[in-house]
Automatic annotation (TrEMBL):
Signal peptide annotation: none
GO BP: any one term: negative regulation of DNA-templated transcription
SUPFAM superfamilies the UniProt entry points to: Winged helix' DNA-binding domain
Protein name per UniProt: MarR family transcriptional regulator
InterPro entries the record matches: HpaR/FarR, HTH_MarR-typ, MarR/SlyA-like, WH-like_DNA-bd_sf, WH_DNA-bd_sf
SMART domains linked to this entry: HTH_MARR
Domain of life according to the entry: Bacteria
HTH marR-type domain ranges (all copies): 14-146
Pfam families: MarR
Region: Disordered, residue numbers: 154-175
UniProt-recorded Gene Ontology molecular function terms: DNA binding; DNA-binding transcription factor activity
Protein's organism: Roseateles toxinivorans
Length: 175
């Protein structure tokens, strides 16, 4: 057994980085889930709405990458969101295999109606953690994503028609 294997074997499960990150995600999301449920929006739908609100209309592959969603999952969800009149999908002018997704006025109204509740939850989290620690947490998470890598943009392009890349997961970042 190598030194690294021995250290890993000795580390308690509660100190497992993936487990800690999942527990952290659950602790954070527990602040937002009641508001999402109140408005009938799933966590994944909210990620899509939030990404499109922040970034404007975008190609499906980029949206899948930003939202950490697999292409087929995103395709099915966008179909339901389109039927509910939350998004529109149109063919990309330069490449008919790709789709551009945009928010509808109905989704923008939903976002606006949820904004104050979301801001309140962010304020509560900041109050509990402290501004300095929260700022440090954001910086550390950005560093982890940058250094360990996410899904490269080239792979995200493969999702434009709903296909998921064969080798890597899109679930590389927490909500």
């Amino acid at each position: 057994m190598t030194k690294i294997q021995k250290k890993t074997a000795e580390r308690p499960a509660r100190r497992s980085l993936p487990l800690l990150l999942l527990q952290t995600r659950e602790a954070v999301m527990s602040h937002f889930r009641p508001l999402l449920r109140e408005h009938g929006v799933s966590e994944q739908q909210w990620r899509v709405i939030r990404a499109l609100q922040d970034g404007g209309p975008m190609e499906m592959g980029r949206l899948a990458n930003i939202c950490s969603l697999h292409g087929p999952s995103l395709t099915g969800m966008l179909t339901r969101m389109d039927q509910a009149n939350f998004v529109t999908r149109s063919r990309f002018e330069g490449d008919q295999r790709k789709w551009i997704v945009a928010l509808t006025p109905k989704a923008e109204t939903l976002f606006d109606s949820m904004r104050s509740g979301m801001q309140l939850q962010y304020a509560l989290i900041e109050q509990k953690l402290g501004r300095e620690d929260l700022t440090a947490l954001y910086a550390m998470l950005d560093t982890v994503i940058e250094r360990l890598g996410g899904v490269p943009d080239e792979e995200a392009a493969d999702v434009g028609n709903g296909a998921a890349p064969a080798s890597k997961s899109r679930r590389n970042r927490p909500t």
